[in-house]
Amino acid sequence: MKLLRLLFLIGLFCAVVTPGLSQEDFSPPLIWSVDDMIYVADNLVARPLTGCLPTEKIESALYQSPDGRYFAFITEPPELTKVLEEQGGIAGGQLPNNIWLCNMVNETLRPIAVQPEDFAMFTGQPDVFAIHSRPTWSPDGQHLAWGLLTANGENALVIFDLADGTFENYVLDTAFPSPAGVPMALEPLWSTEGILFPMTAFNVETSEFEEVLVVVSERGETLAQYLMNPDGSSLDFSEMNILIGTAEDVQQLALYFRETGWHVMDINTGEVTITDSVPESHVPDRPDMGFLTIMATEGIWHGWAFVNPVTSYPETFTDVPQTSIALDPLGSAVAVLSSFVEIRDNDRQYVVEGSEVREGQRLHGIIWAPTVWRLSEAGRVLLPPTATELAGQCPGTQASRLAVGGQGHVIDTVANNVRDTASTTGAVVGVLVPGTTFNVLEGPVCADGYVWFRVQSADVSGWTVEGDATGYWLAPVNP
Question: Are residues 439 and 320 both part of a single domain?
């Protein structure tokens, strides 16, 4: 296996915060969470983010502020841990939880939502606890909001002020609809037009479940309520709700329905229209650089495609959840959390040293640059590779990207051997040094655990390997 030397990319990937770093010098680092640990990539080497490690069990993804200086996450309270040990587990529904906030500029951590001092469960007395939803950031990044469900079933909106560390609880008013199903903390989304609660509600008049969007003020007052189901059907539940816009202007909500695909809701009017576009996630100040787009067809979630305008082909990631993929601050690379943390920029793949995930460990999520969502050009829908496109892929290797009749070049820092046959036992007839351009004559061929192509450069002709299980050594030349 070839070892990639990455010194030339340190300027891109070593954006790691150190204690005392000024606000002006801050660049969001690559951070991820596995089990009860949080790590940061320091010159492409994993190190624990010591100042932001909680004393409690981590239970959620990392929720990043719009400027990337903070992230919040949810933990299991020690009070609940004790109850679970005594009871042997609790079946069904959300459980009490806490919310923590990490300041990345100085690597400090503080709890911002905890359990009541008189916490009680299964004591024979009335239960006393707090269940918090995942938090959402205000568009300006100065506040956090989350839903709160108390032991008596009361739903409230909590607003946390980042500047002074205070928070306000607002009980949702009587105009707020009754949520359907098991009681749970309602999850808000914060737009420039109000705080949104997408939810499933039971319509007493029609005896049907409906997908509704409730818009409330920052004091929890109900401002509007809209039906999200385009046809009112109780069978057409939404799968994803994504705010479309910038920090200064968020007036649309993209909705994905299993049966009818993507729709767009106007938050001001509640009008829902079907669209040929799909949501794209990009770095706010680099709209012309790379972006992530969702691959979904006929109600089937396929994953993500990373599109970099510098190249002519997308990098696809199937079966990767939204919390396990992130863009870099330059919009030129993408990081994925799987069995390790890998970074791809279409032409190259890098593995963060020390990021290996052991079997059975829980993956919570990865963050890098804060992003916003936009709608793609009409009709620009990317799909995962077809079976035909993957026909030349060997088990355990990357999908082939070279094409017969096209050109390729060596992107690795080590020369590629060229052999007289597509086999590791074939005689070496020459080498392709880094940067060499060649014509692709034949392939792909799967042999000895590698994908082979017959190529011809100005100096040599024969069979060479496209890459291995960890990355590519060759790449197509952009037309």
Answer: no
